[in-house]
Specification:
The chain is α+β, with helices and mostly antiparallel strands. It has helices spanning 13-24, 29-41, 55-72, 80-101, and strands at residues 3-4, 7-8, 45-54, 105-115, 118-129, 132-143. Helix content is 45%, strand content 34%.
């Protein structure tokens, strides 16, 4: 927990991006829930969703999963502006992975973090065929 003089610290885009990356790097649901609880105690809302499949044909499904998970976990509300922010940040994160992932399979986790008007999406994927995997992280940020 991050505290200064018994008060919850205010966070900016760097800290929210870091939270999204940490959630995306969790190895399982138990670790993910522990991180979520710790982050929530500091005022940061987070969620994560697993994904796997062929990269090019899956881009829209990845964006949809990020938006649905964000709404389901209460990171965003059901409105056009917040859904668009998560979708845009997810697309930005995916664009950073494209050079490594084109034509290959991906698998990993999408982490989403929000504090007040900052929303960050981190995508951590293993990329490749069989056991010959590369790893990549993409990160996007939006303000709502």
């Amino acid at each position: 927990m991050i505290r200064e003089s018994n008060e919850i610290k205010s966070f900016g885009s760097k800290e929210i991006a870091s939270a999204a990356i940490k959630i995306a790097l969790t190895s399982g649901r138990n670790e993910e829930k522990l991180y979520q609880t710790d982050f929530l105690n500091t005022g940061i809302h987070t969620c994560a969703v697993d994904y796997g499949g062929e990269f090019i044909t899956s881009v829209m499904k990845i964006v949809e999963r990020a938006v649905v998970a964000s709404k389901r976990e209460g990171v965003i509300t059901d409105n056009h502006t917040e859904e668009g922010a998560v979708a845009g940040a997810t697309r930005e994160a995916l664009s950073q992975i494209i050079p490594k992932a084109i034509g290959l399979n991906v698998g990993g986790k999408i982490g989403i973090a929000r504090y007040k008007n900052h929303i960050s999406v981190a995508i951590f994927f293993g990329i490749g065929l069989l056991h010959l995997n590369e790893v990549s992280i993409g990160l996007g940020h939006r303000v709502v």
